[in-house]
Amino acid sequence: MNRAKGTMRLTLIGSIVAAGALALGGCGGDDDESDITAFCDKVEEVRAAEDPFAGLAEDDLDGTREALEEARELFAEVAEVAPEEIQGDVEQTQQFFDNFVNAASDAETPQDFAAAATEFQQQAEEFEATSDRLEEYTDENCGPEEEEGTE
Question: How many domains does the chain have?
Fold first, then answer.
């Protein structure tokens, strides 16, 4: 039962991070060809990066906090080079993810963390339209992300 709760917590976190990652598929600067190229290069770098949540134990709050901070830094790097065309969606995405990371940082127990993740999972569902727009923009300009297991 405890293992199932831990797995659910990591699944919720993964869903929230995935929503942010997909949404940050598009973000900041002038909308010319070089900005799109820089953006796509950064998106590919982030896609190729090791999953910061891989191998985390279900009760590893410190490791989860570190992984969230690492994910936030990756998102910020993408936002710095992305086209202005979708800046509003990007700002909304960054604010959403920052709010989650801040709430998660206050968690003192795995149960607190699970409660924060559940609350933000519900908000992530409301955030779906923004995420879909940014994912579509990224897919159109950079190509879709490869499915896991297809190498």
Answer: 1
